[in-house]
Structures are given as C-alpha cells and as structure tokens.
Design brief:
The chain is mainly beta and 1356 residues long. Helices cover 7% and strands 39% of the residues. The longest helix is centred in the N-terminal third of the chain and has 23 residues, at 31-53. The protein is globular. The N and C termini lie far apart (106 Å).
Length: 1356
C-alpha cells in the first residue's frame, strides 16, 4: 500500500466505526488494525467536536495559497475573510507542514470580513485561535484590535492585543481614561521557543489564555467590578483588526511565523479548545515527514550531512537507515553523529530512509536518494581569492560581496568596481532579520575538507539601509541570521539563505562577523560570531563571542558563549598553526593574540586591564592563553581604538617571504583601519606564538588595489579556480586601445541640435539620449542649443562605450554655465572611482581631470575663463598621458604627465553631459556644437576651429599656475571680477600691492599682435601699469570691427588673505596681549605637511610668523626654518593637522593630530611655557578607543579644560580633561543635531553671561550645510534643540564653522564675537579660503549676517 498505508487505513475505517462503535474491539487477531481503529475512532470524535466548535466561525486564514512577495489581498476560500497585505508577503513552513506567513516590519495584515466590515463588530464574547512561532524577544503583537489606526497614547489606551514573543504570550485588554487598568490582562511566561497553539477567550466576565490546548492563565473581575467590554473598546463599527502590528508609534511588529488564524463569535469552553487542539495532533508525524529535508534539498552529496533525530515541526522521533553505511553512515560512532560521508572513486547512489514516529505512535517513512560525488584530488593552491565588502556605507551596494584576486598575495586585482558586487543579499524581510537590512558585511570563506565545496558566510547588516550608524540600532535590533552561499567551483553559487544562529541567546541584538573552522576530529564546522546581549551578559560589556557547530550550514547546534570579557569583543579570527595550537585574535580593546589546543575552550574573565586579568595568562595548553598584544608584538602600539576586523590566513608555499631577520613569514594578519576609514593594513608573522618582534612585521609590499576593502577573508585557491573566477566575474579586464583616426579626419560624433534632438550628424548614429528636463531651446546668441536646467535627473547621455579605449581623443563643445558648484559639465568613466570629467562654473572655473582612484588622485589641468559663465568654445585633447585644455582656440591649461590614460578607465564607459559620478548637483547651462574626434587635434587645428575672441582682462599680478594662491606676497591680485554684461572689471588687491601702478593685461585666444588698446583715450601698452586709484576707461580693438569699451573700476585694497601662503583649520586665541593663530600648514599632497607655525597679531590684521613650533615627523631633526624652539613629535610620521591650544597656570597645551607609522591618526599633546614654545611632547589621548575628529578646546571660567571631538558612531562629545590637561576623565556630553543621525564636526564652544553656546557643522562631506548651535546652562546639559544661526538655505554662507572668537577683554562676558569659517574647495583644496565676519550672540540667540568686509576691530 506504499509509504502512507497506516494513515490511509485509518481514514478508510472511519465511516464504519461511526455506525458500529460498540464492536470496535471485536477483531482481536490483528493488534495493529485494532490500534489503528481506535485512533481512527478518536479522530472521528475529535472531528465532530471540531465541527461543533467551527459552527460560530467568523473568520479564518490558513495561508496555504500565499506566495512569497505577493501584494494586494488574501481571501480565504472557506469564509471569504479578507487580509490586506501591508508590504510584501513572506512565507514559512507551518507546524503541519503546510504554508504559513512570516510576519515582520516588512509584512503585516489588516483583516476584515468578506464584505469589508469589521470582524469583531458588536461582539463582547470572542475566541481567537492561531499557531505561532515567534523569533523575537522584543515587543511584537500577533493580534491587535483597536477602534481605528490612530497611534495609542499611554494611559489612554483602547485595544485588545496579544504580544507573542519567543518564550512568552501577554494579553492586554484596555479601555483606559487617564490611568492604566491592567486587571483584564493575562500572560504566560517560560514557554519553549517553538511552534505553539494560542487560544484567547474574551467574554464579559473573564480573559482566558490557552497554550497548546491547555489553560495557561485566566483572570476574572473582582466582585462588583467588570472588565472593559469589546464593544466599548472597539466602538460601534468594530474598529480594526491587525495581524502582526500594533498602533504604537514604532509599530512594535510581531516577528515570526503565524498560521491557521480563526476567530469565533463566542467564548469557547475549555473542553472545546482542548478537543479542537487534540484534533490536529494526529497529523504530527505526517507534518514532520512533510517538513523533513536533508542536504539542503540537494540530491548530490559532497560532504558530511546532518540527519535530524527530531522532527522540526512537532518533535517526532526520527531514525535512519542507509542502503550503504560505508558511504553514508546511519548511526552515531561515539561522539560522531550519523551522516558521515565517505566519497568513493566513482559516484555512488545511496538511499536514506527516515522513520518518523510521533508522540501518539503514528509512524511515517520518507526516502531520500542521494548521489555521493566521486572523491577528488585537490591540487596545490597557488593563488588567492579575497571576499570583502567596500566603501563607507554611503551606498546600498557598498555592503554586498566583492571579489579580488591575487597571484602572490601581494598585488590584488579588483574583479568589480564599487557599485557592482559579485554576490548580493536583498531578501532581509525573511528569516530572523529585523529591519530589512538587504545587505551583507564581514564575509568569510571556508573550504570543506574534501576540497570541492566552499561556503561564504556573512553578517546580515546594512548600515546604509538602516540610515547610518546613528540610526541603525544595529546591536540591539539587528539580525540574528547569518547569510550563506555555497559553491563547488567558485563560479556557480547557490541562492543565499538566511540561517538563524543567535535568536536562542536571550536578548540577542545581532550576529556579526562570522568565521568557521573545520574540526576534523568531530567532523563538524565550528562557527563563531559576535552577539550583543544585556540578558546573557556576565562579565562586563554586552558584546561577546559565541560559537555553534554545523555540518551543512543549514542546521546549527545551540550557541555556546565562547568569550565574555569586561570590554567589547568582536571580530574574532582563528587559525590552526603548524605547532598544533589554535591561535585567535579579536577586535577588542587590546588586540590580544591568544592560543589553545582546544578551540572550544570558553573564556570568562573579569579584569579590565591586562595586568589584572583581562586575558588568561596561565600555562594550561587547553585554555585560551595570552601570547601578547598586537601592539606589543609588532612594536606599533596599536590598539582597538584604531583597528578591528582581524583576519588570519596562510600564505601559499611559494609565496612565503623571508624577513630581513631570516624568518619564514608563514602567516598573514590583516586589520581593518576603521577609525581612519582606510580599509585594510597588512602584517605577517613567522610564528604566531612568538613574542620576538623579529617574528612579526608590517607587509609594506602589499597593494590591495583601488577598491577600498573592508572586513573580509583571504582564501588560497588553485590555478584552475583562479582562472574560473576571473572568467566568470572579472569586469576589470585590460582595455584594448583603439587605433586613432588618420590626421585630418573628421569627428566620430557631432551634435548641432538643429533638429531639436540629440542626433549625431555623422554617419555613426551615436545619438544622445535626453533625460529629465533636457531639451533643445533657442539661445539669443547661438540659436538652437541643448538646455539643462540643473534639476535632478536632467542630463544627456552618450551611447555606452563610445569613449572606450580612446587614448587619443578630442572633445569640443560650446558651453555656457549658470552654476557654481561641485558638478560635472561633461564626464565619462565607470563610477566615482574611475572617470574623466570637465567642469565649467559661472565663476569662470574650468577643470579637466582624470583618475582611477577617486577624487584624491585626480590628475588636473585647470584654468579660469572670462565672462561669468559666458559662452566659450572649450576643447580638451587627451594624447595618451598628455591632457591639454583650450578655450576659444587658445591653450589655457596642460598636464604633460597624467598617471592614467583612457584605457585605464576600463570598458563599457558611461558618458554624460551634465551628470556627475558623485552625488553632485546636475549641471545648469547650455551646450552647442558638441564634437568628438578619435584623435588628438593639434594646437593649430584647435585654433582654426575658433574665431578671435577676448578671453579676459587681468588687473594686478597673478601666479602663472592657476592652482597657486592669489593675493600672496608675490602676487597682488586677490580677486578680479569681469562683468561681461556691463563690461566692468572690479578688482581687490592685497595690502602688499599699491593702487597707482597696477599691471593691466588683456588676453585673447590668438597672438596679441593685432590688439590695439587705449586707456582714457591714450594708447596703452598691453601689460603696462595704470593708476587705478580711480575709474578708468579701456577700449579693446581686436581688429574684428567691433571695439569693446570696458571700465576698470577703482581698485580696493583689502586685508585678506591675512596670512601669506597656504594654511587651514586655524585655531585663534588671545594670550599675553596678542591674538594667536595656530593653523594647519597646507599645500602638500594628501595633507602631508610636517610642521605647525604660530602667528601673532595685535589687531587681527597684521600678522607675524613666529616660526615653526612643532615638527610631527619623528625622523626629522630641528628644521632650518626652525630653531631651538622647534619640538619633534616622537610618535608620528607626518600629516600635521587641525591643531588647537589652551592656556592654564602659565602653561600652553598644544593639541594636534598626526599619523602613526601604520597610517592611522592620533591626537598628541605638547606643553610649553610660552605661546611660541619650546614645546615638549607629553602623551597621546583618547576615550574608550572612540574615533576623534575635528577637535576643539574650551576652557571654562574655573580653569577646567574640555576637548570637543566628533565621533561618527556615537555623536559629538564634550570630554573633560584632568587637571593636568593631559588625559580625559569624563565624557561630559554627547549630542547629535535634531533629526540628524550623526554628530556635528568642527565643534567649538563659547560662554556668554553664564550660558554655553555649542556650534558645529553637519557631516555633508565636501558640501557645505546649514550649521547649527545649541545652548545649555551646564556643559552636562540638557542641551537645547539644535538651531540655525544663519538664514536657512544659505549653508552658513557657503562655509563651515571653524571657531567663534570673543573679542572683548572678558571672553566669558564678551559683547562682540568673530565668526571664522572654512570654505573647502573639494577639487582645489589649495585655494580653499577662510571666511570671517561678526556674529551676534546674546540672550541665547546666535545670528550671523553676511558682511562684505571686516575691518579687524579687536574691542580689546
């Protein structure tokens, strides 16, 4: 009769038994049939009870026909009940083996009757029944009935709700009016975390809760009292019924599976509930059989498999029989569970038979036919695969899986660019995810012992999709899943699956940074990860390491706490070395290297420092024992304040390097430089158990490639695997250069817009595509032109690949600009890492740049054009590594040695008019006569394409290099503005230049031999000097029959810039009767300057350079421009940055930022007896390893010192300094701006009339923003709402607050203040000016109004 014969026999017996029940035991010869008959009789009686109970059924939903991803409405076939889907449906397997819904924040239901009326309308007695399996310990409401969808208010609640959590069910029955009446509430705690059947019975006299058919809790009103009635709670229309969501502000979504929802119009009795529940139990074995799967559903077996001993739905006992136990075992061997696979020389067929027996003795069988794949011989590994995520959480594609490859472990090749991951996870609404992360981080690759299976496991987390670190709640409301892919060839990867590893940990907030190790003794993988939990914490910090074991990355054992310490422990990496020890390193405070011969040994320590027991230091080889801290072993001093995400790996045999000390460096150890945002830094070790520094070293020869690599793993692979990976995934193949066209040949694309379209007028059909509001319009000067209005999404697009491989290229266009922003006028490339762009702003700024490593590595050719964005014919030629820029036929800029050519940008290049590869504004302006040549035109050819034209009039002297600063000692012009509409030139000179003999130079796009000039009617020699102490009239005759008359306005002699040279981040103080500026010395590539200067002034106008006071390169001797006062920072190697200073008790405390030898940044403190030094280094400072950016110092009236510092993860801090000003003793306050997820950078504080004013800038990268301020009467707070101090939308007059300076003698009661702000120029940092103007501060209000000039009044 087949596999299901007993169930069929029992069902066949039911009709006869219904009529002949007294004779049911008449047949005694077949005890099996008798037992079946008895069970069939019981089932028939239960069916009758169930039918009686269903007579008052109002609504039901069995969810059997719900498809994953469905939207719209679910309609029940039996009752017509409607359930409106909110979000998209997710499905699970129910306890009866059928479909259930998986509810969460991305999917919940609104339930009505078939006619859309309320299910509970007019009822005061009701029974609500359902099956559930909650996966969250957080508040989540499986059933919620309320008068409407309005948010509930505390002590004014009106609802009936069921809060269903992993180990408890709570019922709340409220009709409150100013006070919570909890007398009608019932609950049951201590439940098993598994499928349960819930019945809630509500009537006028009681609230009763049943679990699995048994009464769990009941409550009745006291004598003379009564409970809130449903009709009173829900109102006359019956209100709303929601499944999976409450009407509290944040939803409090139920997270888990739910099935078989039924709602009855009466209060069922205990017998009815018991009988109805028992009527479902006869299906227990069958449900477990239906749900039983092995080997993740695959019929091909490569490795040991898990053979479950219990049913996943109802816990039925399962036994196994193998048709060939030599190939797949069916019984345990000591501690080794059944399911061990021994692969043969050829594929082997094996049948596994499961016998499933439930608690009532019902039995089912199920067979699985598997093909055990033939054993393979694993070749020697020679190459490497690096799986990682990337970026700065700035894009949804950053937190996905990227692959890089290497032949030697030194030079890494990115197979994809940012934004194009190899593997992605976008299904976070399923499983035990909380928050729709739709992203993965921290991937780890582990190879099976057979060699031909690899698993990739990763953290389910997207900080970007969660709204940034500030809003993420990632350690309290994160996913308890890991995401798993598997492959047998590194090319064909399984669909990713979410596996729950941490929800069984009480209060688990997340599961982060998994790794896995194959334990060949116990035939299982040890999988370990970090989970934060307050409920399960014993030692100190809530973040600890756990492990579980698995054979298949589907079935996992109950997690075991592995490491619990006083301080946070994350990101543990482990390797078994050649000496028989396991070594592990964690991302904790001290970065300890530990070892043990037992990887499962657990660690619980209570010391908060190494000296008092943070690590075990005994000699027991079977316990985890400290070898040393990474900082000590390597001599770098690095700690968890700078590094996280360690990764240990083996080098291939042929790639093992020998150190200078003759050591074989077998092991690699990488760290993610999270605090500096720099990706990985590499080290090597010859012996992980050695404390000899010669056994450890920095791997300076490693090049990780252009793509920023975040926490990942390196796995050695074979040459065949390496080649297959590149063939399948490599999109960064070398681009073949295109052969240029012959001299004299015409364009390959031309666009004149005369047909009002983007038609290419050559025969090549390279037509433009218009997007957004792009359209052809009439221009008074040019006729038909392409007009872009600057709105988001408005641009024109060239055909993809048009610019591929064209190392010899010319692009020419007539262009008019109506924008002055960081934008791309024209661009082609891959993304924000690899691109070429041309920028033309209405300020006249013209920039032509190419890069393969983002904006920090752009090769540039820059110029300034005349006309305030007026029409110019701009031509760019790219001739291999020579980039030349022309305006109206004349060369205006050239870079003769760019690092990159067009072929370096890759293939399938995108190209735009008006669109950037960054999140920049879209271009606003017009184009005409856009032409592209497949060759580099000569200068003579470019000149012939343009008529003679006036390019500009320069007043005063300017540098020949447009990147150099104007207005310095050598060049008198600070700013000269040409208004082409009124033909006027307005000029500001610095005070070092006079107004009576000012050079005037007219430039054109051709030889200037034909230029004729007159000044106030007198002939004038081009380049001569003129008296501009008054307005003058200049007539320019180019010989084109149209002389131009210009007015040279009387020059203004200004005070800015106040300092000659390039300086940034000024800290301004008043000491000893003088003002002092301590700035960053700028003008060095990558901010690599080594020195800090001090400048003094008595009037804020005339400044004296007091010389170099500190050199941050420890290898330098006192410099020639310094003297005995020049101090040397002993710990740093350069990058002097963002200083600040404060005075106390006659001492001057100088705080500065510089780089450690490993490239990370730290804060140092030096002290002197005078503002100019000599300074002596004292210490470096930090707080709990937190990131410190943009520091500022404030001294209160009592002499207490405070450091302000921005910390991306937590906010902006005010730290109190110890009395010696050398250490931090208190985190006084930590703030974020209102409705802003991060802290504020560039913090500064002033105090006036007993009130503190805290200023800061929001984090908007290079873009300026509306800076904010907050006030408080105490530095501890409370701080007021963060408010604007400049007009909304002015973006603080396009600046970022640097410091606010009190100008009166009493700085704590000053009436006058000076605002000083930075204006960063992202692509031209050397020309980033400083803005200063008065700011009004009084009565808790700060107000900044634009001022054209500032005369330098000190009020002192």
């Amino acid at each position: 009769m087949g596999k299901w014969k007993k169930a069929v026999a029992a069902l066949a017996a039911v009709p006869m038994l219904m009529a002949l029940a007294p004779a049911a035991n008449a047949v005694e010869s077949d005890t099996t049939d008798s037992s079946a008959a008895q069970r069939a009789l019981a089932a028939a009686l239960k069916s009758n009870a169930k039918a009686a109970a269903d007579s008052d059924l109002l609504a039901s939903l069995d969810f059997d026909n719900v498809a994953a991803g469905a939207t719209g409405t679910i309609v029940d076939d039996t009752t017509g009940t409607k359930a409106t889907i909110n979000g998209a449906a997710a499905v699970a397997t129910s306890k009866d083996g059928t479909a259930a819904v998986r509810l969460g924040s991305g999917f919940w239901l609104n339930v009505t009757k078939s006619d859309d009326s309320a299910v509970l309308k007019g009822l005061d007695a009701v029974t609500i029944s359902y099956d559930s399996k909650s996966v969250s310990t957080n508040q989540g409401w499986s059933v919620f009935a309320a008068p409407n969808t309005n948010a509930q208010t505390y002590q004014q609640e009106h609802y009936l709700g069921v809060m269903d959590r992993t180990t408890s069910v709570n019922v709340e029955r409220y009709n409150n009016a100013g006070k919570r009446d909890t007398t009608g509430n019932v609950s049951k705690d201590g439940l098993a975390s598994q499928w349960r059947h819930v019945d809630l019975v509500i009537d006028e006299a009681a609230s009763m809760l049943y679990i699995d058919g048994e009464q769990a809790a009941t409550v009745a009103p006291a004598d003379g009292a009564s409970f809130a009635q449903l009709t009173d709670i829900l109102g006359a229309d019956g209100g709303v019924l929601q499944i999976g969501k409450a009407n509290w502000v944040n939803g409090e979504y139920y997270t888990g599976a739910l099935d078989n929802l039924k709602i009855y119009g009466s209060a069922h009795t205990a017998d009815q509930i018991k009988e109805a529940y028992d009527s479902t139990k006869s299906d227990a074995a069958k449900a477990d059989a239906n749900a039983l799967t092995i080997n993740n559903g695959s019929t091909d077996a490569y490795s040991d498999i898990t053979l479950p001993a219990k049913g996943s739905v109802n816990g039925s006992a399962i036994t196994w029989k193998s048709s060939d136990a030599k190939v797949i075992t069916d019984a345990a061997d000591g501690d080794i569970a059944a399911g061990v696979v021994t692969r043969q020389k050829a594929d082997a067929k094996v049948t596994l038979t499961a016998t499933i027996t439930d608690a009532d003795g019902n039995t089912e069988t199920k067979e699985f036919e598997l093909t055990v794949k033939a054993a393979v011989e694993q070749p020697k590994t020679t190459d490497y695969l690096f799986a990682h995520f990337t970026g700065t959480e700035g894009s949804a594609t950053d937190e996905q899986m990227y692959f890089a490859t290497s032949k030697d472990g030194l030079s890494w090749h990115d197979t994809r660019e940012s934004g194009d991951p190899v593997l992605s996870w976008n299904n976070s609404q399923t499983g035990n995810s909380r928050g729709k992360d739709n992203g993965v981080r921290d991937p780890y690759l582990v190879r099976s012992p057979e060699g031909d299976t690899v698993y990739l496991i990763a953290t389910e987390l997207s900080i970007h999709n969660r709204g940034g670190w500030g809003a993420a709640t990632a350690t309290t409301n994160g996913s308890t899943n890991l995401i798993v892919w598997e492959s047998h060839d590194f090319v064909n990867w399984s669909e990713p699956r979410a596996v729950d590893v941490a929800s069984q940990i009480p209060g688990a907030g997340m599961a982060w940074a998994p790794e896995a190790y194959w334990d060949d003794v116990n035939k299982q993988y040890m999988v370990y990860w970090a989970t934060a939990s307050d409920a399960d914490n014993k030692s100190g910090d809530r973040t600890n390491m756990y492990y579980s074991t698995t054979r298949d990355f589907v079935n996992f054992t109950t997690p075991v706490k592995w490491i619990d310490r006083v301080k946070s422990v994350i990101d543990t990496t482990m390797i078994k070395a050649d000496d028989g020890y396991y070594y592990r390193v964690s991302g904790d405070t001290y970065l300890g290297v530990e070892r043990s011969k037992d990887p499962y040994a657990t660690t619980l320590t209570t010391g908060d420092t190494i000296a008092n027991g943070y690590y075990n230091t005994d000699s027991d080889p079977n316990q985890w024992t400290l070898v040393g801290t990474f900082g000590d072993l390597t001599g770098t001093g690095l700690t968890g304040a700078q590094l996280e995400g360690p990764e240990l790996f083996f080098y291939n045999e042929d790639d093992v390097q020998t150190s200078d000390a003759g050591k074989k460096m077998l092991y690699g150890l990488m760290w993610d430089q999270y605090s500096a945002g720099k990706g990985y830094t590499p080290y090597r070790s010859a012996d992980l158990g050695s404390t000899d520094k010669a056994d450890w070293g920095f791997a300076s020869d490693v090049n990780f490639g252009s793509l920023k690599k975040r926490h990942g793993t390196i796995l050695p692979v074979t040459e065949t695997e390496y080649n297959a990976i590149l063939k399948a995934f490599d999109k960064n193949k070398d681009t073949e250069p295109v052969t240029p066209d012959e001299d004299g040949s015409g364009p390959i694309a031309e666009y004149d817009f005369e047909d009002s379209k983007g038609t290419d007028t050559t025969e090549n059909s390279n037509d433009l595509t218009f997007n957004g509001n792009a359209k052809v319009s009439e221009d008074a000067e040019k006729g038909k032109v392409l007009k872009l209005d600057g709105s988001d999404g408005t641009y024109a697009e060239f055909p993809k690949g048009l610019f591929d491989g064209r190392n010899k290229l010319t692009v020419q266009m007539d262009v008019k600009s109506e924008i002055n922003k960081n934008q791309f006028t024209f661009a082609f490339g891959q993304n924000s890492t690899k691109y070429y762009f041309l920028k033309y702003n209405d300020s006249g700024e013209l920039a032509s740049r190419i890069t393969t490593n983002s904006y920090g590595a752009e090769d540039a050719a820059n110029a300034t054009l005349s006309g305030n964005g007026a029409w110019h014919r701009v031509t760019v030629t790219l001739d291999d590594n020579v980039m030349t820029v022309y305006s109206d036929g004349a060369q205006v800029a050239q870079n003769k040695a760019t690092k990159n050519k067009v072929t370096d940008l890759g293939n399938d290049l995108l190209a735009y008019l008006g669109k950037s590869f960054y999140n920049d504004p879209y271009f606003k302006g017009s184009f005409d006569n856009v032409n592209v040549w497949n060759r580099a035109l000569t200068a003579q050819e470019v000149e012939k394409t343009s008529p003679i034209a006036l390019q500009g009039i320069s007043v005063g002297t300017v540098p020949s290099d447009p990147n150099s600063l104007r207005g310095t000692d050598d060049h008198s012009q600070v700013r000269s503005t040409l208004d082409w509409s009124t033909k006027t030139v307005t000029t500001v000179l610095n005070r070092r230049g006079g107004a009576t003999k000012v050079p005037v130079k007219v430039s054109v796009n051709r030889s200037d031999d034909s230029i004729k000039l007159t000044l106030d009617g007198q002939a004038f020699t081009n380049g001569g000097t003129a008296d501009l102490a008054k307005d003058r009239t200049l007539v320019v005759d180019l010989g084109d029959g149209a002389p131009q008359t210009w007015t040279l306005k009387k020059v203004t002699v200004g005070n800015n810039p106040v300092l000659p040279g390039q300086y940034a981040d000024p800290d301004i103080d008043y000491f000893d009767g003088k003002f002092w500026i301590y700035p960053t010395t700028d003008g060095f590539s990558g901010w690599s300057g080594n020195y800090f200067h001090a400048f003094s002034s008595t009037d804020l106008v005339n400044w004296t350079d007091e010389g170099v006071i500190l050199d941050v390169n420890k290898d330098h001797q006192p410099t020639t421009d310094g003297d005995e006062n020049t101090a040397i920072s002993p710990w740093s190697v350069g990058s002097a940055w963002a200083p600040t200073i404060e005075k106390k008790n006659g001492k001057y405390y100088f705080y500065y930022c510089a780089k450690l030898p490993n490239g990370t940044s730290a804060i140092g403190v030096a002290v002197a007896d005078a503002p100019t030094g000599p300074f002596a280094f004292q210490t470096t400072i930090t707080w709990r390893g937190y990131l410190s950016r943009d520091i500022g110092v404030f001294q209160d009236e009592d002499g207490s010192g405070y450091i302000m510092s921005e910390d991306r993860d937590h906010g902006t801090h005010i730290y109190r300094l110890a009395d010696d000003y050398l250490t931090i003793v208190e985190d006084v306050a930590c703030e974020r701006a209102t409705d802003y997820p991060y802290g504020l950078e560039s913090p500064t504080i002033i105090k006036k009339d007993g009130l503190y004013y805290w200023f800061g800038s929001q984090l908007t990268s290079w873009d300026t923003n509306d800076n904010k301020y907050s006030t408080a009467t105490d530095l501890h707070g409370p701080w007021s709402e963060w408010k604007l101090f400049a007009p909304k939308g002015a973006k603080t007059y396009d600046s970022q607050v640097d410091i606010v300076v009190p100008l009166d003698d009493d700085p704590y009661n000053s009436e006058h203040f000076l605002f000083i702000g930075d204006r960063w120029q992202e692509h031209d940092l050397g020309n980033s000016p400083i803005v200063q103007m008065p700011i009004s501060i009084a009565d808790g209000v700060a107000s900044l109004t634009w001022s054209d000039t500032y005369e330098g009044t000190t009020h002192r």
